[in-house]
Fold this sequence. Notes:
Layout (H helix, E strand, L loop, with lengths): L19 H9 L2 H15 L5 E6 L4 H12 L4 E7 L14 H7 L8 E4 L2 H14 L1
Parallel strand pairs: 1-2, 2-3
Amino acid sequence: MRATYPRGPILLRDASWMDLSGFLASLTQGTQAYKRARIERLHRILPRRKVVCVGDSTQSDPEAYGDIYRLFGGAWIKRIFIRKVTDIAQMDGAKNEPERFEKAFRDVPRGVWTVFEDPAELYEAVDGLVSSN
């Protein structure tokens, strides 16, 4: 993993029977509210870290990340990457329309967020971020 990712924590969704309250919250809250609450908690823990958000178009990642950027701004969130999921039949339609992303990222500078389909696009962008630091 060290050869692929820059140094830093990787924080994933709580979904464990060992933490029943976190598990139940992940099942009962809407995904946008759950993600926003988790990211707000992350900001309380690591307020001085620079954050790169990576998500996809299947649920509410664009909306949650747009909300968080508007809340904390560019001093905390350096970039947002959203994979446009196209290999699932249900993803045809509004979830992948450009208007959805424009609305989700209203007031977020266009250079901050990127929607991509090919993972190679993400690799190139992240390499650029790592080499600029």
